[in-house]
Amino acid sequence: MSLPLIVLLPLLGSLVPLLSSNRQRNLNAWSTALLPAIALGIVIAHAPGVVAGEVYHSSMSWVPQLGLDLAFRLDGLSLLFLLLILGIGLLIILYARYYLAPEDSMPRFYAYLMLFMTSMIGIVMADNLLLLWVFWELTSLSSFLLIGYWYQQSEARRGARMALAVTGMGGLAMLAGFLLIGHIVGTYDMQTVLDSRDLIQADPRYLPALLLVLLGAFTKSAQFPFHFWLPHAMAAPTPVSAFLHSATMVKAGVFLLARLHPALAGSQLWLYIVTLTGLVTMIYAAYFALLKYDLKGVLAFSTVSHLGLITMLFGLDSKLAVVAGLFHIINHATFKAALFMSSGIIDHETGTRDIRKLSGLRRSMPMTAALAGLAAASMAGVPLLNGFISKEMMLTETLESGLLGGLAWLIPVLATLGSVLSVAYSLRLIRNVFFGPEAKELPKTPHEAPFPMRLPMLILVGLCIVIGLIPAVIVSGLLDAAARATILAPRPELQLSIWHGFNLPLLMSAIALAGGVGIYTVRRNLFNFQRQFPQRNALMIFEHSVRRLLQWTQVTIDRLENGSLQRYMLWLIVAVLFLTGSGLLDLDQLQGSRQPQPLDGLLLAGAGITILAGLGTAILHRRRLVSLMMLSVVGLMVSLAFARFSAPDLALTQLAVEVVTVILLMLALFFLPQRTPKESSGARVVRDVLLAAGFGGVVASLNYALLTRPMDSISGFFLDNSVSGGGGHNVVNVILVDFRGFDTLGEITVLCIAAIGIYKLLNRLRLFMPSSDSEGRPWSRDLHPMLLATVSQSLLPLALLVSVFIFLRGHNEPGGGFIAGLVTAVALILLYIARGVDWAQQRLSFQYQPIAVTGVAIATLTGLGSWLFGHNFLTSAFGHFSIPYIGEIELATAMLFDLGVYLTVVGATLMILANLGKLTTRHRPSKENEKETV
């Protein structure tokens, strides 16, 4: 149970800061840090067992049909990342307390930070591929909120949008890869996948699965050519950059490479794609880091470069290379978080991050200068610091690589070149900012930040020094456990120390240091060389591509969706004709083995009337009222057909729906011309006739083909279990409120939402209401005939009694909540029509929105109630009870659910019709037109 707590506590922590105000800054920080600190304590409590070789698991079924379980694992790899996420996360919370300005919303910042922390913890602990993807997408969404925290700034909005687009696209690709792996292995369980290397790599789907998964990893870890989003994410507050781009978001990609290394690595595809992508990214980003003038810009490209280094190590066909990659993940997190914090302090205390304006800050900020200098030295790979050890391990493994055959020497040469550039930009970062003459005309007078703001830097730099001096003591156990979880074997023999004797990797490190100093001294020549090329901003290219895509989609939409309902129907009918017609072409013959039933005269008469009414609707469509009447005849004949074939529930429903639909269309016709304009051309008429004939022919053929073939039906199950399982003899109603109750709940929810949407649209709508018919005659002044008013008012109690009767009998006889709701709604609407909206609303003073919402709530609570008794959602119960003077009756919880359906139908129907009818009451005929009335 403790493993889910590690995920749950930070999630609850996202709610804690929202309980305090922005003015309570200390309370905000300490209350936010409490739950992640407890989670870190749980992780540390499990650490000894993990280091000893234990793997802790926790699993709970979530969506078993999809293979998605709430499954978590805590092994060495998870432990390494959890310590980084939670440890550095707590330092970020302290740092942000002093970084954020008084006008910045601290509760909102901490809530976003905790949500992101939860997502990252979920990724590294997920023991199910689909669950990993869920948390993966949550990191994209929560990082979007963090990067766009200063949403008032256009750069923040654009950077957040770019990060979401790129990482979101990669996440979808990764999901496709996971689905392929799941189909190959037969499960999404992580351990089973990791143990199925031979099965996966022997399958022909390995190539697309590998490419899709790598696309997800490369986009998240900003590998070339998907690196461009990360520098523009620097528009975020510096605490966000320090957290996301040192230990968390960008590390998610390399974590994925490590986690799936046992299943996907070892092939030539993996070797070439991962190694070369990492190597290219390492050199490319290091070169551009040297050219940037913004402090965070330098750190952003250096982050991309070091991620490329780690990716390259995971690509090499060597277990020691994997260990080196894991070690550098730890080292990079410590020195890079410290450097981001130093850039934030400089920006906070001087008002700028422009290297061209900064100089000599060691005099006014000596503590920050010392800490930043040590962190930069570690990033450059200076001896006695942790970065030196992992970089020397990297150079050693490149020498052992056999990649590129006879050109294998290129790998260590290019890796050394990347190290040279790393030294150069690290030296520029420190030399230009902290040394030289004191800067003049800075926006603020520079001074040291408060000690609590420098404390996180001090802790991180202290780790850089301690790990650099005694690595075996500090990280050996953690590295052993992480390596064991990544390569599924004990860690290869490795000497973790600061001295390995005089050897070629040491020489390469010396060359990197000397070469970096040399490049720094001639950096101006490099700047002049780069100026020869046109400056291309990745953000501009991205947004230009997005604009072009939007323009293309808009052109396509304008062609397909131009406001013409006829065109929409055209595309719909053509699509149906194509899909169903292609299926019919595959049949050997249209008629199946079942013989059609003989026709009777009554059926033929009904079909004839339906066809004639349909033809009348089409032929007389210009006269809208007449065509509506013909259309209602079609609906009536369909109802009779349902009754003829022993479907009374459907017949009643169709009749009720027909009445409501006719009322709705009559109200709509009030605002429309009395006649439809003629078609634009004869060709259009021919086209419509051909489409109608084709559609009718295909549908008729499809029905005939299906009805003359033996088909397996699930109706037998419902017939056999309707009484024993649902307690009702009306199988249709039992299906709606019991067997398929969840579907019905979804449908009434949609109905309620649609009704509220229509109500809001009509509430402030102002329509032009005609004062006369198409021939100029004014509407009758007798708006509410006395006969209709008297009859409707007299029928109202009877109609309500009928609806109650239909509702109560629905579980065993034709009826139910849906039909009863329509009957009630029609009765009340008839009162509106007969007496007018004003008269009716004075007497029916209640609102219809709460009725519809209450219906959905009752149906939902009925489903939730089954949980109290340990059953699944919407599990129904029934029983027989003896009541004095009445006798034995049956009561079922499904009746409560049906009551929710009834209230939703009544509220939604009246919400639409009553408010539409209200629009027709604003017109009063003018005195000039009282002579001749319609």
TrEMBL record:
Gene Ontology biological process terms from the UniProt entry: monoatomic ion transport
Main subcellular localisation: membrane
Localisation per UniProt entry: Cell membrane; Membrane
Source organism per UniProt: Salinicola corii
Name of this chain's protein: Monovalent cation/H+ antiporter subunit A
Transmembrane segments: 6-22, 34-56, 76-97, 109-126, 132-151, 163-186, 206-230, 242-263, 269-290, 297-316, 322-346, 367-389, 409-430, 457-479, 499-522, 568-585, 601-620, 625-645, 651-673, 685-707, 744-762, 783-808, 814-834, 846-869, 889-914
Keyword set includes Ion transport: yes
Domain MrpA C-terminal/MbhD: 610-674
Keywords: Antiport, Cell membrane, Ion transport, Membrane, Transmembrane, Transmembrane helix, Transport
Domain NADH:quinone oxidoreductase/Mrp antiporter transmembrane as annotated: residue spans: 126-404
Domain Na+/H+ antiporter MnhB subunit-related protein: 788-910
Residue ranges constituting the MrpA C-terminal/MbhE domain according to the UniProt record: 684-778
NADH-Ubiquinone oxidoreductase (complex I) chain 5 N-terminal domain ranges (all copies): 65-110
MF-aspect GO terms: antiporter activity
Gene Ontology cellular component annotations, sorted alphabetically: plasma membrane
Bilayer topology annotation: Multi-pass membrane protein
UniProt cross-references to InterPro entries, sorted A to Z: CPA3_Na-H_Antiporter_A, MnhB, MrpA_C/MbhD, MrpA_C/MbhE, ND/Mrp_TM, Proton_antipo_N
